[in-house]
Amino acid sequence: MKIALIRVGADSGNLGFHSPLFEDGTFDFIPINDTFNENPKNGFKKINEKRTFSNTKVKKKNYLIDYFPASKKEKFRNAIIHFDPEFETFTYGDPSFTKKGLSKLEKHDYLIFYSSLKKKSQETYQLYVIGFFEIHNVQIVTKLNEWKDLQNDFGKNFHVMHKNKFERDVLFEKNKGLKLVKGTRNSKLLNKAYLISKKIPFGKDKQPRFVISDEMEKIFGDFKGKICIQRNSLRFIEDSFVDKTKDWLTKLK
Prior knowledge:
By secondary structure, the chain is of the alpha+beta class. Helices cover about 15% and strands about 25% of the residues.
């Protein structure tokens, strides 16, 4: 069995802020915006997507735009949401060649999603597990004629439901294929977020960075010394910690 972690959702590098964490430990997950329609290069037409931050809710009663800082609302009010991962049919897609490691996941493996969340009462964000997939299957798509066959398992994934985007992702040679992950019904978007990080001076320059917390290192291991989880690199749990991680993960609510 294999278990991987990947960072998803709003952060300072895309939307410029972080998803909200509430005092009771619940949260609202804010996906990133989709930039395809802003600059659909090489002759690709814009996609037809009506979900924006101003007309969409996720878990709470608030529209997502309500969580945006005032300085960001105008820019993103009518921006299209890139819903990925989606927890209705449990799919995740990523065309990036840096996520080629997703192809290593097999049935009954796990993919853990973590995200940056911030309480109003806190000065900075932290990194939290917000959900996971128990893997049903993984596909690496390299041919356009596979699109119809993907509809049953992946029809609600953002990369598949929009054919123009699908074609761009598959045809762009640097991507090395569109990576698609399907979760079983045992997959979850959690009710409460679970802290996995601490911030310490780290790296050759000793700048403050987020690393695995001492508590979570006892569960996840130290990724063979690569404990920094600030970026969205795909990380695999060491074999000797897989059973402990699965036991911890499957008890989350």
